[in-house]
Amino acid sequence: MRFCLVLLAILSIVTAEPSEIGSNDVTLRLRGQKGTYSTLCRKDGSFAISDVAPGAYLFEVSSTDLIYPQLRVEVSGKGQMRISRGEDNTQTIPHPLRITAEGRADYFTPREGFEVMSLLKNPMMLMMGVTLGMTWVVPKIMGSLDEEALEELQGGANRQQLEEPPTWEPPTLRPTITNH
Prior knowledge:
Elements: E1 10-15, E2 26-32, E3 35-40, E4 46-49, E5 55-63, E6 66-67, E7 71-75, E8 81-85, E9 92-93, E10 97-100, E11 103-104, H1 116-120, H2 123-144, H3 147-162, H4 174-179
Parallel strand pairs: 1-10
Antiparallel strand pairs: 1-4, 2-3, 2-5, 5-7, 6-11, 7-8, 8-9
């Protein structure tokens, strides 16, 4: 059963500077299990949502410039309405509803300043640091080795270079195919 009475229409005023409220700037939505109702705010800040079915709804004001609170609206089958702030049902708000903006929406993110630590945490800088460190550490390690260990390392490297590389043949499926 839907009510189309003026008593159940939510007639209210969204307060802000008149220049801040445009007809396409502020959208009002009433969302609940019974459905979603939406309307635009008039230039004078008033709005009306009519033909609201009984039930509990969440009332949201969507604006690109201002932030408004969410309200809980409960419409009874007798045509009575109870409006409370958000999920807190203890603080009721009188009807007609006056919604004031809580603040301005700030979309600007300030640019981060230069930090040496952020530069050092960069993966490319870490790889470069490890490479430079190894070019300094490896000669020090080689210099601290005794002559026998150094000759053994150099001899192993020379033997690997002198040996012929192993020839690689791709595997064949011929024996497995002929056996079956």
